[in-house]
Input
Amino acid sequence: MSSRTLLTGATGTLGQALLPRLRDDGHDVLAASRSPPADDDTAWQTLDLVDGTGLEAAVSDVDVVVHAATAPQGDSEAVDVRGTERLVEAAADAGVSNVLYVSIVGVDEIPLSYYQHKHEAERVVEASEVPSTVVRATQFHSFLGGLLDGVSRLPVWPLPTKLRLQPIAVEEVADAVVEHATPDPAGRVPVVGGPEVRTLGDLARAYRAARGLRRPVVRLPLPGKVARGFRAGDATCPDRTVGTTTWDEWLAGRYDQETA
Ligand SMILES: NC(=O)c1ccc[n+]([C@@H]2O[C@H](COP(=O)([O-])OP(=O)(O)OC[C@H]3O[C@@H](n4cnc5c(N)ncnc54)[C@H](OP(=O)(O)O)[C@@H]3O)[C@@H](O)[C@H]2O)c1
Output
């Protein structure tokens, strides 16, 4: 049965990977953004989770909501917590069968403010009257690549090299999310991680080699609970190596393409 599915965060990194996959899986997708792009192939809905613009129209006549909107660099309390509250309330009123919330491995362990807001949003979703599913994933390769792109402009790369990460291709996260994007809520499903756990220092050196750069990577000692959590591997799930694309393979694809 094809379901009518609202995708929040449809312009984002994960949203862009989800859109074609949901369609290929037979969903009738309504894509949401604060500023929908011109795109004849997709039905777009203007939606702002902070002030509620477009919310009622977005959830009406929808079976499934895939909630991938977030504001990691912005006001994550307003978007991720209060916005999620607004969304699940409207979804419950509209009789939505399943709200699938995308979260991050370690949000309950690492006291980073963004993670605390994601954890609170998970609780909002689970406490709501609307049936739900929560899928946690590890960091996307592209997210880590973006961070290292920023650092790469410096003559020396000061990095907390001992942090442990398990990056994954966003396409593989999207595949796992689509599996649960059905009218049958599944609650908390097994987390989704990349194929290998590596230190940030090791990942940065692989990035440097892929770009043919020679800048020194220097260990930046980071005190505090956040860094301790990442060092302890709280943002990883070594028993759940669902993704198969390694960091090195992702880098090879990225730089072969750029230098071709
Ligand atoms: N990035 C990672 O490494 C990673 C890892 C694991 C899990 N996740 C989770 O995966 C999900 C998607 O992350 P992402 O990296 O794809 O995010 P992203 O690229 O930053 O995209 C964020 C999306 O949220 C939308 N948005 C922002 N503010 C909004 C608002 N006020 N109202 C409605 N929509 C709003 C943006 O749309 P407009 O600007 O067009 O409105 C955009 O489409 C998030 O739940 C994130 O926590 C991410």
In short: The first strand starts at residue 4 and ends at 8. The chain has a mean pLDDT of 96.
